[in-house]
């Protein structure tokens, strides 16, 4: 079998099964695991999959710049944002991560909501500025332009004085076994720190983020309080998340 044929087979199997187990595939094709691993490395370098221990998972298509992310799954993000906004109660302190989905959350907040929002995203802060009944706390730090959020020691220092009720975390991948992930190492560390300050962490994930992985792990999925997903997702896609001790909210 030619290399190109093997790679097409791997991508086809990945799409059908949601994962590749290198040992199993090598036995099926009568090839060495080294050959399969080499194919996986090359496909990963092209951004076509994400290597994990023992094989590969689909790569998140959302590891792109902010402008590109604005064009992805707009209708789904609006639905998820509305469902998330309904979880916020007056008087709460809410930590909002950066991300295009969270823009939709802000746009669905009730006009009379009285809450305090803390964010390290200038984009989110501008959106929150329209809600005059809410307090807005903007955390400072070095601007990470890929996601348009502040990061670094200054961000963590400001965060250390706040205990949010809710943290809405932005991610690029949600996988039942491989956890929550994103495409930048420092951002992954910051998201974990933000999550550890909050009483509950919530993730909004459209279909393109479910069952996929990015390079840097934030935390296991079981550390979430709530995972908000599209109700149109088939049960077999969501079933791996059942029994993880989290609330699965279908929007």
Lay out the secondary structure.
Blueprint lengths: L2 H15 L2 E2 H8 L3 H13 L4 E3 L2 E3 L8 H4 L4 H12 L7 E4 L3 H8 L8 E4 L2 H7 L6 E4 L3 E3 L4 E3 L1 H7 L6 E4 L3 E3 L3 E4 L2 H13 L2 E6 L10 E4 L6 E4 L5 H4 L8 E4 L1
Parallel strand pairs: 4-5, 4-9, 5-6, 9-12, 12-14, 14-15
Antiparallel strand pairs: 1-3, 2-3, 7-8, 10-11, 11-13
Helix pairs in contact: 1-3, 2-3, 5-6, 6-7
Task: From the structure above, extract its key features.
single chain; 251 residues; alpha/beta; Arc Repressor Mutant, subunit A; Rossmann fold; seven-stranded parallel β-sheet; three-stranded antiparallel β-sheet; 10 helices
How much helicity do the residues have? 25-40%
Distance between the termini: 45 Å
What is the SS-derived class? alpha/beta
Radius of gyration: 19 Å
**SSE string:** HEHHEEHHEHEHEEEHEEEHEEEHE
Number of domain modules = 2
| Nearest-integer average pLDDT | 90
Label the CATH architecture of the largest domain: 3-Layer(aba) Sandwich
- Flag low-confidence runs: none
Protein name: DeoR family transcriptional regulator
Domain HTH deoR-type: 3-58
InterPro entries: Carb_Metab_HTH_regulators, DeoR-like_C, DeoR_HTH, NagB/RpiA_transferase-like, Tscrpt_reg_HTH_DeoR_CS, WH-like_DNA-bd_sf, WH_DNA-bd_sf
Keywords: DNA-binding, Repressor, Transcription, Transcription regulation
């Amino acid at each position: 079998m030619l290399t190109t044929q093997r790679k097409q087979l791997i991508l086809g199997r990945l799409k059908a099964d949601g994962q590749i187990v290198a040992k199993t595939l090598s036995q099926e094709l009568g090839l060495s695991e080294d050959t399969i691993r080499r194919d996986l490395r090359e496909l990963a370098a092209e951004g076509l999959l994400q290597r994990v221990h023992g094989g590969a998972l689909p790569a998140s298509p959302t590891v792109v710049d902010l402008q590109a992310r604005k064009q992805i799954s707009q209708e789904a993000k609006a639905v998820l944002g509305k469902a998330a906004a309904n979880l916020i109660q007056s008087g709460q302190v809410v930590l909002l991560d950066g991300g295009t989905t969270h823009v939709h959350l802000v746009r669905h907040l009730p006009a009379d909501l009285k809450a305090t929002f803390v964010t390290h995203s200038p984009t989110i802060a501008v959106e929150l500025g329209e809600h005059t009944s809410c307090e807005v706390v903007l955390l400072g730090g070095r601007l990470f332009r890929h996601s348009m959020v502040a990061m670094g020691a200054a961000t963590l220092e400001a965060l250390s004085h706040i205990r949010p009720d809710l943290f809405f975390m932005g991610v690029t991948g949600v996988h039942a076994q491989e956890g929550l992930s994103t495409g930048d190492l420092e951002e992954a560390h910051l998201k974990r720190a933000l999550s550890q300050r909050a009483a509950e962490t919530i993730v909004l994930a459209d279909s393109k983020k479910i069952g996929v992985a990015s390079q840097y792990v934030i935390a296991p999925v079981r550390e979430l309080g709530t995972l908000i997903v599209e109700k149109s997702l088939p049960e077999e896609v969501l079933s791996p998340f059942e029994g993880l001790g989290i609330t699965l909210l279908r929007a």
